[in-house]
């Protein structure tokens, strides 16, 4: 009895599959017979341009060239989603269902590709790549996703139009591509997923046209275009552009007459502005203008539109700051402070950045520092002397994704994020192992703890200390503490970035 039921179910399934295949063929023939106005010149070329992901790589490059962080993140996510979809198609999809390509007889000659694909038909790799890239981009930036989506839909349609795929091949490929993009998002959350509601909110002046804002811009950062755009949005704001060596003096003079102190530059320039804003009790407006811009981006200000919105509506929060004290004085850090190999890397990066650019200089600096013959740093922590390759202290807890850069979702958590790379004979391997450990609190190479105070002693004279991209020399003892909610900073109060 059970065997009869199984056979009946099997036959029913086969009949249903044959019915779907017949429907698929009829839709393909109808598409071949249908006149697609204006498509003859566009779709075959578009289909060819998507071979081997060339179209999407070019699109990603164009997005990255816009120089906005959101566009760069969207481009990277789109390519990562495309890569996963292509890998799945080529290793599993094409080999699991060996479906023959459609016959070309119903397809007009003008539509056919000059070079016909030789792989199996199901599922469509082009449709998978298009859907994966467009979905990945949209998950990070809906605006860029809306711009890319029509192109992706056209590529998918072109595969039926040119006769190289049945409609079901395209639908299955597109579904696989969308799934790949969501899987990438699960593995590496988008900025919107990590975003937390701005807190704690602070009272700050709402400057509808910018009157009372004095913005000091570091000319070395190449920020002229961004500053002009902010001034267009806030026409009554005062803008002071100055050379790097004049930034400190310009900030002091601006603070004396401003209701809001503004700064445009890299993290070092922002650090200087934060110290002056604290001493004068002023709210700070930060416009990113450097290479990394960690503080501005973690704050949620990515461009002049974000900052203008916050200033117009008086949207601001209180954030923590880190303070370090040495025998020679004290300093402030908004992002990170470090001892060991990193200060040497910063020096090497600064030495080469004006010649070859920031990112290449960073890579070159890392290679030079790690290849050098050196000994680990000796430091006393809690009365115990330890050899260290790196001691990293973050103002707020950094969330790390393996080797990907870390970021903070809460700038008022009251914590110092302390991470240590233990000393050994092989610094490169130790540092790489610590990076791979990512969010792990302990590994053979790496340890992490969150505290609100830290005291280091036994530092040799002239030990380099890096903070927010600046380097100074210290000796003897260094004390670090968190200043909770010390600084009022403008940021857009919204639920998604």
Descriptive notes:
With 497 residues, this protein is an alpha+beta fold. Helix content is 46%, strand content 23%. Strands 5, 6, 7, 8, 9, 12, 13, 14 and 15 form a 9-stranded antiparallel beta sheet that branches. Strands 2-1-3-4 form a 4-stranded parallel beta sheet, with helices on both faces. Helix 2 crosses helix 6 and helix 14 packs across helix 15.
Could you name the key traits of this structure?
single chain, alpha+beta, 16 helices, 15 strands, 23% strand
In angstroms, what separates the terminal alpha carbons? Answer: 61 Å
Can you tell me the overall shape?
elongated
Q: Name the beta content range.
A: 15-25%
- Give the overall average pLDDT: 82
Radius of gyration: 28 Å
Note poorly predicted spans.
Answer: none
How are the SSEs placed, and which strands pair?
Layout (H helix, E strand, L loop, with lengths): L1 H32 L9 H7 L4 H11 L4 H28 L28 H16 L1 H20 L5 H21 L3 H4 L18 E6 L5 H10 L4 E5 L4 H11 L2 E6 L1 H14 L3 E5 L5 H6 L4 H10 L2 E11 L2 E5 L2 E5 H16 L1 H14 L5 E5 L2 E12 L3 E3 L2 E4 L8 E7 L4 H11 L8 E6 L1 E15 L2 E21 L7
Parallel strand pairs: 1-2, 1-3, 3-4
Antiparallel strand pairs: 5-6, 5-15, 7-9, 7-14, 8-9, 8-14, 9-12, 10-11, 12-13, 14-15
Summarize this structure briefly.
It is built from 16 helices and 15 strands. The protein has helices spanning about 1-35, 45-50, 55-65, 70-95, 125-140, 140-160, 165-185, 190-195, 225-235, 245-255, 265-280, 295-300, 305-315, 340-355, 360-370, 425-435, and strands spanning about 215-220, 240, 260-265, 285-290, 315-325, 330-335, 335-340, 375-380, 385-395, 400, 405, 415-420, 445-450, 455-465, 470-490.
